[in-house]
Amino acid sequence: MSLYENKYRVTYEAFSKFSAKISKADNKKELLAIMETHLKYLFNYKYFRVLIKDEDSIKSFNIFQNSICPTEFILDVVFDYEEKLLAKNIPLYQNTDGSFLKEYQEQLQICEGKLWGWHFEYQNTELCVSLISDKNKPFIVKDIEILNLLIDSFFTKYQQLKLRNRLHKKNLNLENALRIIKSQKLQISKIVDNQKSIIKKRTNALQQSNTELAEISRLNAHNAREPLSRILGLIEIAEFYTEKELKTTILKNLKISAQDLDKALKGIIEKSAQAIEKLSNEDLSS
Amino acid sequence: MENKIKIFLVDDQQIANFIMKKVISTLAIDCEVIAFDKPKEALSALSENKPHLIFLDLNMPLINGWQFLEYMQDDQETKVVILTSSIDPVDEKKSKEFPQVIHYETKPPSKEKIKAIISREIK
Fold it and tell me: Which keywords does this chain's UniProt record carry (chain B) (predicted)?
């Protein structure tokens, strides 16, 4: 087995480990941490960068040799060469001193640096993958094969996490909507209960008024009938009296009874007026 | 004197008692009528006079007809005729709860009916 074949056997073993790890990643942070840890076992680089451009955003992450800067997703500038990659989709291979990395350039200690760049296109998403290698950390054309595999499995996982996040957000929204519906339902049932109690209250008030009115009319009838029955009785017995007796006894009692009847009727009229006024006031206030 | 029927009239309205007295006097029945316009006095006179029959009004101040009946519950001899201006069926129904009450009459008193009631008591 040649040295070259041996190297690739080792590399593929490293890749299969990487694949196993990446499949377990639970979020984007973990995904990047795995990328950073395993990248150095797959190929040589001084600096590795992935720019992701999807429907609504451009973000990127950088992996430095010896981890001089934390690896995380950032919304930052698109480098000139990335603009070209996005525009033309032609792979890039050129000399570089890494000056576009500004303050990180010196720490990388690039010696005869080469800038490599590739454009990947997936559904709705474009990826610009670039790396700087140098004389001490050479990246070779044969490594592109493993890089392709790496980007594929990275992006598959990335997309999966993104969809999961979206689903989670939608679920949250749905839960919120459900909560709102529930609270509105509760409010509606409260309103209905309130209406019911108002109706019950008014019905009770009406029933009570009806009872009061019935009682008043019963009392009225009785109060009026009492003197009236005397008048009728006096007329009944009148035939047994002489004319003189009629004047002194019957007429006198008739007069008293008729006055009592008049008093009773006046009382009835007054009470009815009061009852009607009371009822109409209650109607206005409720 | 033994057969002479004794009647109480209990009504707070003097005129009502006056009418009843006259009605009874025209019946040609030998009887003794005592009228009370204060129910309390009638109750006091019950044990001494032992009337055969009481014509009792319902709507009276202080002691109404129902209370009067309650007070004379122990008296099993005396019979009561309610004589009221009330034509309320509830009152008539209630009057049937008292064993002494033999009739419920509404005013004005009719000569024929009063005659029938008293005549029945003589026999």
Answer: Lyase
Q: How close A262 gets to chain B, by Cα (Å)? A: 16
As beta bridge partners, residue A64 has A47
Helix, strand or coil, per DSSP, at residue A139: coil
Residues B23, A228: C-beta atoms closer than 8 Å: no
Tokens of A140: 């070779």
List the beta bridge partners of residue B10.
B36, B56
Yes or no: say if B16 and B107 are a contact pair by the CB < 8 Å rule: yes
Q: CATH topology for A191-285?
A: Helix Hairpins (1.10.287)
How far is residue A191's CA from residue A87's CA, in Å, rounded to a whole number? 62
As a dihedral over the C-alpha atoms of residue A49, residue A52, residue A57, residue A62, rounded to 10 degrees, the angle is -20
**Helical residues (DSSP H) of chain A, grouped into ranges:** 3-24, 28-39, 80-88, 105-108, 143-237, 243-245, 251-285
Residue to test with chain A: of B19, B82, B83, B94, most A Cβ within 10 A: B19
CATH C-level class of B5-122: alpha beta
Interchain contact, B107 vs A253, CB within 8 Å = no
In chain A, CATH 1.10.287 covers 191-285
Min Cα–Cα distance to chain A from B19, Å: 6
Q: How many CB pairs lie under 8 A apart between chains A and B?
A: 53
Q: How far apart are CA A209 and CA A203, in angstroms?
A: 10
* Least CB–CB distance from A218: residue in B88, B107, B109: B88
Superfamily of structural domain A3-174 = GAF domain (3.30.450.40)
**pLDDT digit of tens for each residue in chain A (286 aa)?**
576 777 778 888 999 999 999 989 889 899 999 999 999 999 999 999 999 998 888 999 999 987 777 778 887 789 999 999 999 999 999 999 888 888 888 888 888 999 999 999 998 899 999 999 999 889 988 899 999 999 999 999 999 999 999 999 999 999 999 999 999 999 999 999 999 999 999 999 889 888 888 888 877 778 889 999 999 999 999 999 998 989 888 999 999 999 999 999 998 888 888 877 877 776 655 5
Chain B residues whose CB is inside 8 A of the A234 CB are 15, 19
